[in-house]
Design brief:
The chain is of the alpha+beta class. The protein is built from 15 helices and 24 strands. It folds into 2 domains: about 25-345 and about 410-475, no CATH class; about 345-410, 2-Layer Sandwich (Dna Ligase, domain 1), CATH 3.30.1490.270. It starts with about 30 loop residues before the first helix and ends in a 14-residue tail after the last helix.
Length: about 525
């Protein structure tokens, strides 16, 4: 073992590479041996090459309002095929249950009538939109793309941390990470059979085409972006390009005659499926915010008429509510007649009086989260909070128990990460992405591993300064090789494509609106905006 692993400390968390006896776990032995053979300067040189490739690609993220190159760590995360073949069905099961729940929420609400969930759970959710009631996609799919956040607890068991079925982001980093890592460690990709991720754009396009209105044989699919000022614009442009479809803004679309049309240099072209990356509230100024310039007036009317499909469906955010999250195991049993394959993290529902009183008594031991928070903002880690912060939090919980959940502090699993001292354990989570085409839920092998870079930090979100890792799911060597060999798509985006080529008077207003959406995404509930951060949400 070289200096890179010298002094690698054991911790309270489950380390995915080194066990408590100091032995390398079987899944990581080949990668560990390759890293151990390298000198510190050699590995750092590869890390610097990896970082330069990201700068060249223009892979960025938003940090405190500033666009920065996205940090990707040079040491991969490895998941065995056996582990993945347990996790992936659990993710697919959860997506199927959430599909059924959302169809029920905006339909007959059988789960309410049968007492599985209270009606107030739905109607009090920030992202429940009555405008979406009765709108049904042709193939019945509302959750075309989902990101289910997983962690491994102190025992190494995978658990679900939260669900993302509105506009889940991050898959561009998965594709870019893999592209860059194949160039950084070609010898490992030659030696190991790693399940490919390059099929994702094809799978996504197939799912979107399958959701087209009836009678459309060759559907026109577009990606709707808020614009070049949005922090995820790199992802929007990458997905449009790798799927071979048009990337449009709201001003490129017009609703006329009960249909959606795209303005082109050859005239108007009918649009059948919109993969939108615009939040519900900004999608249609007729149905939602009248001041929005990011969507197109009339989109909801066309969706209701069945002439266009919006993916993901409007109103899905009710399933992202962290209080709804606590009911998902019950929803799986109710809709699917199955036991959950991947369990939740233990959670207190603070609207229940006994749970609220217990949490108030143990506030300094727990993590408390706003139910509609995101990006690691708004939550409080009790053991790190000051007495004044806990006192303020106590008052807020009593005033609005529906707006919060509480969980134990979970020591997220750790993976070696290259830092100044060498390879050291850092906490990680995992966001597998699932694509639903109406016939099956396909789960992308691996997904996005997010890593908290500071020592001991539990916040993994890029918006809080976290980075990412390439996630390698090992294939069973005894099984058949993939029918199609993994092909790396050309993910490079020219630097100039990330800024507008021309300036017009509407750009200033559009930039302001895009920034407003990003603030809206970060805000959650206004009363929890300025709370200190903690464990990932």
């Amino acid at each position: 073992m070289t200096d890179l692993f010298d002094g690698y400390p054991p911790g309270a968390a489950w380390d995915e590479v080194i066990d408590r006896e100091g032995e390398v776990r079987p899944a990581y032995r080949h990668v560990h041996a390759a890293l151990a053979k390298m000198s510190g300067p050699e590995l750092r040189a590869r890390a610097e090459s990896l970082a330069r490739s990201y700068v060249a690609q223009g892979v960025t993220f938003d940090f405190a309002g500033e666009e920065r190159p996205f940090p990707v760590d040079v040491a991969p995360r490895v998941v065995t095929g056996a582990e993945w073949d347990t996790v992936a069905p659990g993710v697919a099961q959860r997506v199927r249950a959430l599909e059924a729940f959302l169809a029920d929420v905006y339909g007959p609400q059988r789960a309410v009538a049968d007492g599985v969930v209270p009606r107030s759970l739905i109607t009090s959710s920030t992202h429940f939109h009555r405008q979406a009631k009765g709108i049904v996609a042709p193939n019945g799919v509302r959750v075309h793309v989902s990101g289910i956040d997983l962690i491994r607890d102190e025992a190494g068991t995978f658990r679900v941390l939260e669900d993302n079925v509105r506009v889940p982001s991050g898959v561009s980093y998965v594709l870019s990470n893999r592209r860059a890592m194949t160039q950084t460690f070609p010898e490992l990709f030659a030696a190991l059979q790693i399940r490919p991720v390059a099929d994702y754009p094809v799978r996504l396009l197939e799912a979107l085409r399958a959701a087209a209105p009836p009678g459309v044989d060759e559907p026109t699919v577009v990606v709707l972006t808020p614009g070049v000022y949005n922090s995820a614009y790199f992802e929007h442009s990458l997905l449009a390009r790798t799927m071979g479809v048009e990337l449009v803004e709201g001003r490129d679309l017009v609703c006329s005659g009960g249909r959606v049309w795209m303005r082109t240099t050859q005239g108007r072209q009918r649009v059948d499926v919109i993969y939108r990356r615009v939040d519900d509230e900004f999608l249609d100024p007729v149905a939602f915010r009248s001041d929005s310039q990011l969507g197109s007036p009339g989109l909801m009317a066309c969706a209701r008429a069945g002439t266009v499909t919006i993916a993901n469906a409007v109103g899905n955010g009710v399933a992202d509510d962290k209080l709804v999250y606590t009911y998902v195991p019950d929803l799986i049993r109710y809709y699917l007649g199955e036991d959950p394959l991947v369990a939740n993290v233990d959670t207190w529902r603070l609207e229940e009086r006994e749970a609220l009183e217990e949490v108030l008594d143990r506030l300094d031991e727990l993590v408390v989260k706003p139910v509609d928070g995101s990006g690691g903002k708004g939550l409080v880690v009790g053991p790190r909070a000051s007495r004044a912060e806990l006192g303020d939090l106590r008052d807020r919980l009593r005033a609005d128990p529906r707006g919060w959940i509480a969980q134990p502090v979970v020591q997220l699993s750790t993976v070696p990460t290259l830092v100044e001292e060498g390879l050291r354990p850092r906490h990680v989570d995992l966001r597998p992405f699932a694509v639903n085409d109406g016939d099956q839920v396909w789960v992308l092998p691996g997904g996005l591993t997010r890593v908290a870079l500071p020592e001991g930090e539990l916040v993994v979100n890029s918006s809080q300064g976290g980075g990412s890792k390439d996630t390698w799911v090992l294939a069973d060597r005894r099984g058949p090789r993939p029918a199609r060999p993994p092909v790396d798509h050309p993910h490079t985006v020219a630097p100039q494509s990330s800024v507008p080529l021309d300036v017009n008077p509407d750009d200033v207003r559009s930039q302001s609106m895009q920034q407003q959406q990003q603030q809206h995404e970060r805000r959650g509930r206004a009363q929890v905006q300025d709370r200190p951060g903690g464990a990932p949400c």
